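Example A, followed by Example B.
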Amino acid sequence: MSEDGNSKAGAGAGGKRAREGGAASREERLAAALRANLQRRKAQGRARAASDDSEADEET
């Protein structure tokens, strides 16, 4: 077979293992992204709440 044929066969066998390991790392990346997003949204909410409190103080 050609060099491409061998590399495809090797990638298929190794690719399956890589995908299994990649799925775990993908899950870890997604979990980290979700945690970061949650922290960012909480910080935005706290900032908005503080902003609303300061505006309410200014109006009275």
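Example B, a separate protein, is given below in the same form.
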Amino acid sequence: MSCHSGSRVSEVEERLNSELRQLVKDIWRVGDPTMPQVPFGELFDDDDVQQHYEGLAATLKAAKKRGIVTYTSPILLKGAHDKVLIDLVDKSPLDTDGNDLDELKESGVDAKFNMERS
């Protein structure tokens, strides 16, 4: 393997790790503020999630393979699998890089409220 391809692999791995860390935060933010879980449809419909992920289902599949999340469906398709619950395996509070977990959860409650009003 050349030095160039090794650095490319490192870049891809870092990007995936970054997306997986963000996914955990998004599940806390969008989902039930008392439990780290969210229906796939709510996560998919969140504006911030739509802007961040190139392929949410692929990111979720990678997270499932790494033991970060669980869900019962073998695939996730918008509409057909909206009610499938995405559960975090590690239910302990996040290290949010200085952000307060309660603030993160509250932003999820605000987002749900705004979605319900529209």
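On Example B: Confidence is low (pLDDT under 50) at residues 111-115.
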